[in-house]
Sequence to fold (134 residues):
Amino acid sequence: MSTRRFLAPALRSMTAATLAAGGYIHAQLYLDGYRFIHVVGPLFLLQASASFALAAILLIGTPPLPLRAAAAGAALGALGGFTASRTVGVFGFTEHGLQPEPQAVLSLLAETGTLLLLAAWQVTVTRQPRAARA
Fold:
């Protein structure tokens, strides 16, 4: 049996897991007090909801390219928000270093993992013969 046959479902499952992990971290931070931060709180809830929804949809079956792009967008949005909150601020909200601990590091790992898995998955999909993609 071909390992390629099992690679796409494995990458899909791992991507869903990292998306869900990032969503869980954002939901936890929202409940732990970020919900009281003007504008930023609802953005944490939106990030968590989008991550959970995308993870669930990924598990249903092999998604088309737009769904994989949406998953990448969610991960990039979280990383962009993380970077902005430590540099220029987000709607007046700033953080420093890798605080809150350990959620900041775990979120960075989850979002980066999502992007790496999506990239590997895309390479796998584009290397398949056209007939196998359908």
Remarks:
- Helices lie at 3-31, 40-60, 65-86, 103-127, 130-133.
- The chain has a mean pLDDT of 90.
- The CA atoms of residues 35 and 41 lie 4 Å apart.
- The radius of gyration is 16 Å.
